[in-house]
Design goal:
about 120 residues; mainly beta; 4-stranded antiparallel sheet; about 0% helix
Length: about 120
């Protein structure tokens, strides 16, 4: 069993930055891919970014490439998402996830709200 707890969401103006963090607990947390998905009101949940358990490979949605950066610290069982040049369309609930990403999510966090005002 793995538990995921997100933090760092909030309200920011367009063009601003936020950093999301996710702390994982559980014996095998560091062996899984970790990543982020998001869900905007009235839309389906979508993949944002993922990082392999080794930290050597990262994968991003086209909509966030060049603006978001994912990183992880296996010693602390954490994954972070640095979000720069935020746009109103980035407004969503952001969920931390782990598993074989993005295709197979084994565990979800509870989500953290990110709101970008224009």
């Amino acid at each position: 069993q793995v538990q995921l707890v997100e933090s760092g969401g909030g309200l920011v103006q367009a063009g601003g930055s936020l950093r999301l963090s996710c702390a994982a607990s559980g014996r095998t947390a560091s062996r899984y891919d970790m990543g982020w998905f998001r869900q905007a009101p009235g839309k389906e949940r979508e993949f944002v970014a993922a990082i392999r358990w080794s930290g050597l490979s990262r994968n991003y949605a086209d909509s966030v490439k060049g603006r978001f950066t994912i990183s992880r610290d296996n010693a602390k069982n954490t994954v972070s998402l640095q979000m720069n040049s935020l746009k109103p369309e980035d407004t969503a609930v952001y969920y931390c996830a782990t598993g074989s990403l993005p295709a197979s999510v084994l565990y979800w966090g509870q989500g953290t709200q990110v709101t970008v005002s224009s």
